[in-house]
Design a protein that fits this description.
There is one protein chain. Helices cover 85% and strands 0% of the residues. With 131 residues, it is mainly alpha-helical. The chain has one domain. The longest helix is centred in the N-terminal third of the chain and has 52 residues. The radius of gyration is 24 Å and the shape is rod-shaped.
Length: 131
């Protein structure tokens, strides 16, 4: 076996790996930045939703409705809804990060599995009108 040829092939392989990693670095940094931004936004929205739901009795002006909301003890609902909002935002930003990395299989899977199914499961909200 020719060791010079083996060393040359190994050197070429290592050079190709180095070039690939250098080309991937900006995409990886961008994807991590987008994902971390998504985590920050998700935590902010989670805190906002939790406060809105916990303080719903203060927002509503109708006294009967205020007393009813106080009786419901909506602590668990506030936690559940805020966590649901958190994970929907995380999945959205994770999808964006995989798109930046150029991973269409994961992006398509995340989109069809979670985001698209969430839209169809909550599409009955479309008929509601806020007055």
């Amino acid at each position: 076996m020719n060791y010079e040829q083996l060393l040359e092939d190994l050197s070429t392989l290592l050079l190709q790996i180095k070039e690939y990693l250098l080309a991937l670095a900006p995409k990886l940094i961008g994807a991590v930045a987008v994902f971390l931004l998504g985590v920050l936004i998700a935590k902010i929205f989670q805190a906002i939703m939790r406060r809105i739901i916990k303080n719903a009795d203060r927002i509503i002006r109708n006294k009967k409705l205020q007393t009813r909301i106080k009786q419901l003890q909506i602590e668990k609902s506030a936690s559940l809804i805020s966590k649901l909002i958190y994970w929907i935002i995380i999945i959205f930003f994770l999808t964006a990060a995989t798109e930046i990395l150029g991973l269409p299989i994961i992006t398509t899977w995340l989109f069809t599995k979670y985001i698209n199914s969430c839209y169809h499961n909550f599409s009955w909200f479309d008929g509601w009108k806020v007055t």
